[in-house]
Amino acid sequence: MLHTYPKRVVVIMLVLTAIVAIFPLWGPAVFGAQSDFMMEKMTLMLILALFAMSLDLLVGIVGLVSLGHALFFGLGAYTLALASPAFSPAAIWWMAPLVMLVAALAALVVGFLVIRTRGIFFIMTTLAFGQMLYYFVSTSRHTGGTDGVFIMFRPSVEVGGAVLLDLDNPLTFFYVCLAMVVVGYLFLRWLTRSFFGQVLDGIHDNEHRMEALGYATGHYKLVAFVISGVMASLAGMLAAMQYGFANPSQLGWHTSGEVLMMLILGGMGTVFGPILGAFAYEILQHTFEHLTTHWPILMGITIILAVLILPRGIAGLIIDPPSRASLAKSSPLRWLKPGRAAPASEAVKPAAPAPREG
Amino acid sequence: MDLAFFSVQLLNGLQYGLLLFLIASGLTLIFGIMGIINLAHGAMYMIGAYLVYDLTFRLGSFWLAILAAIPVAIALGLIIERLFLDTLYKRDHLYQVLLTFGLILVLNEAQRIIWGGDVHSVPVPELFSGRIQLTDNLQYSHYRLFVMGVCLALAGVIYWVIRHTRLGIIIRAGAVNRDMVEGLGINVRTLFTLIFSVGVALTAFAGMIAAPLTSIAPGMGDSILITCFVVVVIGGIGSIKGAFWGAILIGMAETFGSVLIPSLASMVIYLIMAAVLLVKPRGLFA
Amino acid sequence: MSATMLETRGLTRRFGGLVAVNEVDFDVRENEIHAILGPNGAGKSTLINLLSGEFPPSEGEIRFQDRPIQGRKAQQIARMGIGRSHQKTNVFPRLTCLQNCQLAARIHLGGVLGSWRSRQRARAVDERALQALETCQLVYRAYTPAAAMSYGEQRQLQIAMVLATEPTLMLLDEPMAGMGREETAQVTELLKGLADTYTLVLIEHDMDSVFRLANRITVMVDGCVLETGPTAQIRASEKVRDVYLGRHQEEVHA
Q: How far apart are CA B246 and CA B238, in angstroms?
């Protein structure tokens, strides 16, 4: 019932995945000498797709709008950078669990505090906690201040001395990131269709009712917050490997805003939408950067337009494509109003959860 | 820390806190009445500062610059409210966040296009360029005292409006229950436009009078915005009184934090926020 | 006389200056249908909200099966066995009828991690969901999304959801509001049948149903209890007729 989409979604996603996967075959023909650079860009898009997906669990599924998700992304990057030995690669077998553990603990503490708040408070407090870490790492001596920390060696993937994967090889790393996105996607699909996911949907639709039924909604939200944070930290770890450094900007609130934008551009609550959103956002930004040095202004205008005319994002267009007739209808806003399968009267969510009493 | 030094820091903290109050009160009003979270609020602070910088040199007077800049700021608020926010009132906060985030990108970049990426400053106006002798070895800038006075006066006006006028009744009712405002038979559209413009004007004005005290730099609005979020969360959303005490608390905490524990100074206000969330998740004055 | 299941002493709730529920002493006995009557604004819904833990009382005591429950969270109270339905239709429109009931039944799987517990228990829980649908005669709608059902059916689904949580006491806030005559009769029968197994507290405006269903009635006016007693006593009460029935008639005819 929920989270089931038309067949064409599967087809489109498989085709797109295949196109990305065989990039090494067509990349050089299309981009020529720039092919290597483009593959790096693509790797980054995959990493951001993982990041955006993780946020979708919070924003799209549970309905918790976090403006501090970069906290976990940056935490993953910094954990890798600070825990890596200076003159040799770290083993991924303990690095990845360490990153996840640190993120889980941070998510538990931050989550415990922010879950107590609702609506607009949640937005503000997540933003504030994100900035707290931002200011901390950009002023602390141990974290390299505004310069950040460089990572000299990417972690090694070895079993008993035999190298399984060479992450320094851009092609290998590209496929590792692709695999992470696929695994992440399958995990979230499983999660959203499980009973746990159903409870999260219930909280999104009507938290009050879930409480009245007897659900400790706070616990569910906290677990979702932790899962989401851990996924984001893995994306951050990959990003740090890709860039070769951990930098305060990776956990600044502009990063949080951008990933939120990817989510909305792709279509939130659909899990596959954010992947499309991450690619679309990065491609747009790449294009704008080539057009003008003042590209942020174009990005800003795009964001504003997307919010106004495409609130359900690209996924919304795929799930129920606008018919010609509806396109012709007066307002372009009408056919894209948020609120998935809800009846028309409930299609527009109220701006805020109504206060409990009077 | 001797007494003189302490007193100066106390005054600095108070002055900073009062300035924060001007910005945070706009933020909290806009949320309390309109239910809109406006991330571009900090950008308006920046624009206020840049406007005064620009106009001071054009018009040759800080005071004329402020007089000229206020209508510009109000006009900008009107345009934003009518053009963009109008469609967002009934939508989820998420869309408000994103749209106003887009606005930040546009406004920040517009600032770069118009005024460039350099850091600027505005001289303290001559009238208040002196310093007052507090004790033998303790001076304090006239201009800072003036800023405090202006902020306190404005706080007084806001308090009076909220306590003693019909508009104030509506605002108080709206902060508790927004639907009630519509039930009171008020033209909500006009009210929203008014509130938004006033909120924006307050912030921009804060940027204007702060201009001679700070360096005017790109992105100066971002950090102040987040500090004001902390203020509003601590005080309780929609509460002007909360914004006032929250602002004073944060102003003091930040000032003394940077003097007493420089290594943790950037974290202090967030730790305070965390503590408040633990005890009163809806803010101290909600 | 059967044992007391729930009782309140001096229960009071203030909102700012307004006293919504004022010093209410109220008791519910096992296996009875206890109706709360009163004009709009009498504090009926607030009383139910206090009992179900939606918000804490300002003063006073609530005892459920001899344990004090005031100040507990709604979710705890629900799991202790007080199920409630809301005045506004409150089902999950995107889920099917059965899924709605499963969601309700699964509160007994135990906590967040319970979501991934043994299949056997999950099956038992799903069984209960189906039983609830059966009781409410909604089985034929099991796979219909709630959003696609009629208003009356959604109201019934709401009762089914409460049943699925396996309550001992059910608080129903205007279960028949907005229903047609036929549907009302159907739900009246349903509730009557439930009284064998459950204890019911209900707020209802439909006088006919109330007098037909209730064993005892509590009449509330302005936040206070005007009179409590067996249905026959309330039906005959002068006081009630003056204060409430008269006013209610006016309302209806207005």
A: 12
- Domain ends where: C166, C198, C221? C166
List the one residue out of A48, A63, A358 whose CA is nearest residue A234: A48
- C55 to chain A, any CB pair closer than 8 A? The answer is yes
C172 shares its domain with C251:
yes
Q: Tell me, yes or no, whether A271 lies in a domain.
A: yes
Quick one: how many helices (H) and strands (E) in chain C? 10, 10
Nearest Cα to Cα of residue C49 among B134, A357, A56:
A357
DSSP C147: G
DSSP A73: H
Q: Which of residues 105-164 of A touch B (CB under 8 A)?
A: 113-114, 116-117, 119-121, 123-125, 127-129, 131-132, 135-136, 138-140
> Does residue C15 sit at the A interface (CB-CB below 8 Å)?
yes
Among candidates A121, A268, A300 on the partner chain, residue whose Cβ is nearest the Cβ of B103: A300
Q: Give the tens place of pLDDT for each residue, B67-98.
A: 999 999 999 999 988 888 877 777 788 888 88
Closest CA to B254 of B273, B282, B279: B273
Residue C7 and residue C52 in one domain: yes
C74 and C2 inside one domain = yes
CA distance A113 to B250: 19
* Mean pLDDT computed over A140-146: 80
pLDDT digit string, tens, across residues A35-66: 888 899 999 999 999 999 999 999 999 999 99
Does a structural domain hold residue A7? no
pTM of the predicted model as reported, rounded to 2 decimal places: 0.86
* Number of domains observed in the structure of chain A: 1
Which CATH number belongs to the domain containing residue A68 in this structure?
Answer: 1.10.3470
Best of A125, A254, A259, A291 to mutate (most B CBs within 10 Å, chain B): A125
Q: Is residue A28 part of a domain?
A: no
**Among candidates A185, A163, A241, A202, which has minimal Cα distance to A62?**
A202
Domain assignment of residue A27, yes or no? no
In what side-by-side order are the strands of the sheet with C18-29? C18-29, C4-15, C59-64, C67-68
Q: How far apart are CA B214 and CA B212, in angstroms?
A: 6
Which residues of chain C form beta strands (DSSP E)?
Answer: 4-15, 18-29, 33-37, 59-64, 67-68, 82-85, 169-173, 199-203, 216-221, 224-230
Task: Tell me which residue in A212, A357, A358 faces C84 most closely, judged by beta carbons.
Answer: A212
Q: Which domain holds residue C229?
A: 1-81+167-254
Q: Please give the Cα distance from C170 to C179 (Å, whole number).
A: 20
Nearest to A213 among C99, C115, C161 (CB): C161
